[in-house]
Design brief:
The chain is of the alpha+beta class. The chain is built from 18 helices and 45 strands. The site of one 2-acetamido-2-deoxy-beta-D-glucopyranose has 2 residues, from loops.
Length: 815
């Protein structure tokens, strides 16, 4: 509409006319453009708002100049609705103030759809303020409209929006809309709970759960609850016009444009997120200047049962059915998926009828049948097999300082709030009938076929707000720990803090998404045969097999490792379980695995291809100056520290050598070939499984030779030798001719000897450094690096530093 002042004046006159002559007032649904109430500065309009075909709700919205309301063009920003769940007919419906003092909305059929339930014998006035508050008040005839007694106001019964100066109280809550186009009540609620905390609740058709603040954070009191306080029982929250939202539980949220006077609103959107919107004036689009949940997939109910949510850089999130499951309603992902197979309970005991499909990076929140410690994978699988309701299980390795490593088994009776992210370092095993072949489902999940749940298209997220202000990893860890029921929260927290600190990819959903799309997958043998042109270009040969260069169908260049038959005693499932553990390792200094092939007796692994080759190649061709060598020493240490210590202590490499350290185009190292020598449970260390000597002559720790217990210190030793080789340019195998000794001692003894003698004259480093580097290096750093390397090759494994101590010592050089 075009609300000219004269039109407004007429509207007001009509209202006043009614007041004075019949002490009653009414607005009709017919001619919705005319039957409106405007606020003094026209900021807001109240009237009948079209919500569907011949369906209207009495509402308040931001006035749109030059725009008519039209049921085919519903675009106004509605901030309040009287009857969102019960729209009235487009004919003969009215809003009236009765002589009794009640404000009522009646439908064409004269039924009372909504009312304020007020009573007064005085003349009444209905006023829309410029704050957006619609107020029913008694008219004080002795004064000029001030100090009037307020009978009712719309600010006291918000729908999904809170305006500046409006207060959310213990008696009120925000309830989201059902969808982008439907204004009726949806599934999300922002409210003050009985413990005085402001929360977001998902109240779905079948289940309900609180997801903000993270439930485990407050239930456990201290840990992670941040600044929330349960002690202030005033239970009020509001958004000020500068853009700060503050709540009596100490939650304070500044919008990104905090401080500027703008039109603002806070809305609980239909997707369960609370967003603060702002704009200069009605000519502009709304701009999101803040949102409570930074990760849309962590909002409960977002994807429905039996599906998983992934972050999508364009549409914020994407829902995908689990392998073997199909959409219940392919227009509405929130309804979730149903199994496209039958597993009757009588078949449960028949183990042969079942299979468990590992899904990397997948977790489901809650609905655990229980959690079980110290179960082997087999026991966990059996438990789920025999439990009729079990739909799958999570089998996760934990490490805490006090307890060391152990496994936890979580059979799930419902698969809700599924979420998939590279950040999530765990496998979920989905229960499926044996007959099905859903392995490609992993690929489908990762490559699309998902349902995109689009976000309101008019809003544009400001870049700075997509990124989290808080440490996303920590938040994620808390979320995860919560799904375990708070077990070992502290220990897990501490340990995994390191896990996340170590990797540049963590904490950024977009990266996670990209790698998930590029994703880990199963390849067919024929596909890899084609990619490598029948294994024609061999680029390396190492533990367990030969490596070929290949070009995948999507044109990515890959290094494809074909494992020898000797490694193939295991079943495809065991192989897959192992490979997916390796596949989930995600660190910039570890080579990335893209997938695998297990077909008949063929076992292949597909890795990213490194154009620059290995450290060995680069050393022999004199490509590496001091900075590059130092960077490689550092990066390799970080990669190994991640393998050993950051939650994954049971993975030893056992064959560190320059051939297994690849370099990328920036000369950043990537450790390759890890995990193949059987993933070690810590308990297995030193037992018969490891009696066979592994590794490569020259780089092997004495433990192998003397048949002592094997620990992560064997890798530390080999790392030390590699660093000495980089410093000296001499190979531990061929470089130095000294009298007969254990071959791995040659280079090491030579350097030790140089140091012992050199210290007396005050310069030993210069005597060992690779002459091709001339004097282009930092002597101080070089000396530290050499000392670290020498500490790594000490015979007594307990004296050697751990890989993370190595990283720390090297890092301290840079500061
Ligand atoms: C809605 O109405 C406005 C103004 O009347 C017009 O500019 C706009 O294109 C319309 N939008 C749709 C989707 O019809
Ligand atoms: C009307 O206003 C006067 C002066 O402000 C006040 O004394 C009086 O109580 C008011 N009457 C009602 C009914 O609120
Ligand atoms: C409780 O919260 C309100 C609103 O934030 C604040 O004004 C009040 O001072 C708080 N009370 C206490 C005891 O902290
Ligand atoms: C919000 O901004 C105010 C004023 O700039 C500042 O004092 C406060 O610490 C900020 N709060 C948060 C949570 O960033
Ligand atoms: C989800 O899958 C389980 C079986 O795993 C099934 O019992 C349940 O009915 C499914 N949920 C819905 C909403 O179909
Ligand atoms: C469901 O399963 C049947 C038979 O197993 C298959 O033909 C059909 O394509 C599946 N449906 C979907 C949507 O995957
Ligand atoms: C389940 O077991 C029944 C008999 O116990 C058998 O008839 C049926 O084929 C089995 N279902 C599947 C999916 O194997
Ligand atoms: C699991 O094993 C650890 C150490 O082996 C032990 O301390 C713990 O009590 C065991 N837990 C259960 C539930 O058996």
């Amino acid at each position: 509409m075009s609300p000219s002042p004269s039109q407004f004046f007429i509207t007001l006159l009509i209202i006043l006319f009614h007041f004075h002559h019949s002490c009653s007032f009414s607005l009709s649904v017919e001619n919705p453009d005319q039957n409106i109430i405007l606020s003094p500065k026209y900021t807001f309009t109240a009237g009948f708002y079209p919500t569907g075909e011949n369906a209207y709700s009495f509402a308040i919205w931001f006035t749109q100049k030059h725009k008519h309301l039209d049921s085919n063009n519903i675009s106004a920003t509605v901030v309040w609705m009287a009857n969102r769940d019960q729209p009235v007919n487009g004919k003969r419906s009215t809003l009236s103030i009765l002589k009794t003092g009640n404000l009522v909305l009646t439908d064409a059929a004269q039924s009372n759809v909504w009312s304020t339930d007020t009573a007064s014998s005085k003349p009444l006035q209905l006023r829309l303020h410029d704050t957006g508050n619609l107020v029913l008040q008694e008219l004080n005839t002795s004064t000029k409209c001030s100090n009037n007694n307020i009978l009712w106001q719309s600010f006291d019964s918000p729908t999904d929006t809170l305006l500046p100066d409006q207060t959310l109280t213990r008696f009120t809550s925000l309830v989201s809309s059902r969808s982008k186009t439907s204004h009726s009540s949806g599934f999300y609620k922002l409210f003050f709970d009985n413990d005085n905390i402001l929360r977001l609740l998902y109240e779905g058709p079948r289940v309900s759960s609180v997801f903000w603040p993270d439930p485990w954070a407050t239930s456990n009191g201290a840990a992670g609850s941040g600044s929330r306080s349960t002690y202030n029982s005033s239970r009020i929250a509001s958004l000020d016009s500068f853009g700060r939202f503050s709540s009596s539980d100490n939650f304070i949220f500044n919008s990104s444009d905090y401080g500027t006077l703008l039109q603002r609103r806070l809305t609980l959107d239909h997707d369960g997120n609370v967003r603060i919107y702002s704009r200069k004036d009605e000519e502009q689009r709304w701009f999101v200047s803040g949102q409570f949940k930074q990760r849309p997939c962590f909002i409960h109910g977002i994807c429905g049962p039996n599906s998983t949510c992934t972050n999508d850089p364009i549409n914020a999130r994407k829902c995908s059915c689990l392998p073997g499951y199909v959409w219940i309603n392919d227009q509405d992902s929130s309804q979730g998926c149903r199994p496209n197979f039958t597993l009757s309970c009588s078949n449960m005991t028949h183990h042969d009828e079942l299979r468990f499909l590992p899904l990397p990076h997948v977790d489901f929140y809650g609905y655990d049948y229980g959690f079980y410690e110290n179960k082997t994978y087999k026991e966990c699988e059996d438990l789920c097999s025999h439990l009729c309701d079990c739909a799958g299980f999570q089998y996760t390795f934990f490490f805490t300082a006090e307890r060391g490593g152990y496994y936890l088994c979580f059979p799930k009776i419902q698969l809700l709030n599924g979420h998939r992210s590279q950040n999530f370092q765990s496998l979920f095993y989905l229960k499926l009938p044996k007959s099905s072949d859903f392995v490609d489902g992993i690929k489908n999940q990762q490559n699309g076929k998902g349902m995109v749940c689009s976000r309101n298209r008019v809003v544009k997220l400001e870049r700075g707000y997509i990124e989290e202000k808080e440490n996303g990893s920590l938040k994620f860890m808390l979320w995860f720990a919560g799904s375990l029921g708070g077990v070992e929260l502290l220990g897990f927290f501490l340990v995994c803090f390191f896990l996340f600190r170590g990797s540049k990819d963590f904490g950024e959903d977009n990266n996670g998404y990209v790698s998930a799309t590029a994703g880990f997958r199963k390849f067919s043998y024929s596909e890899l045969k084609r990619a490598t042109e029948d294994f024609s270009q061999e680029i390396g040969r190492g533990a367990g097999g030969s490596v070929y260069k290949g070009v995948l169908s999507d044109n990515r260049v890959a290094a494809i490792k074909r494992l020898h038959e000797a490694n193939q005693g295991e079943s495809e499932r065991e192989f897959l379980a192992e490979v997916s553990i390796i596949g989930r390792l995600n660190h910039m200094n570890l080579i990335e695995m893209w997938g695998y092939c297990a077909e008949g007796k063929h076992r292949l692994l597909v890795y990213e291809y490194m154009e620059k080759g290995s450290l060995a190649d680069n050393l022999s061709s004199n490509e590496l100056d001091w900075d590059k060598r130092y960077g490689i020493a550092m990066g390799t240490a970080k990669g190994l520290a991640y393998l050993h210590e950051e939650c994954l202590e049971w993975i030893l490499h056992c064959d560190i050598k320059p051939q297994n350290i690849l370099v990328d185009s920036d000369y950043q190292p990537k450790v390759a070939d890890f995990g193949l020598s059987k993933l070690l449970n810590r308990d297995d260390l030193g037992n018969s499984k490891f009696s066979r000597i592994r590794g490569t002559r020259g780089y092997m720790a004495p433990e192998w030779v003397f048949n002592l217990q094997i620990t992560s210190k064997v890798d530390v030793y080999s790392y030390g030798v590699v660093v000495l080789e980089m410093i000296t340019g001499k190979s531990p195998i061929t470089g130095i001719q000294i009298k007969e000794e254990l071959c791995h001692e040659r280079l090491v003894t030579w350097v030790r000897e140089k140091k012992r003698k050199g210290i007396e004259v005050g310069c030993w480093v210069e005597q060992i450094v690779d002459p091709t580097m001339e004097s282009n290096y930092d002597v101080k750093k070089m000396e530290t690096l050499a000392n670290v390397a020498l500490d790594c090759v000490v015979d007594d494994k307990d004296v050697r530093p751990t890989m993370s101590q190595v990283v720390e010592r090297l890092l301290s050089l840079d500061s």
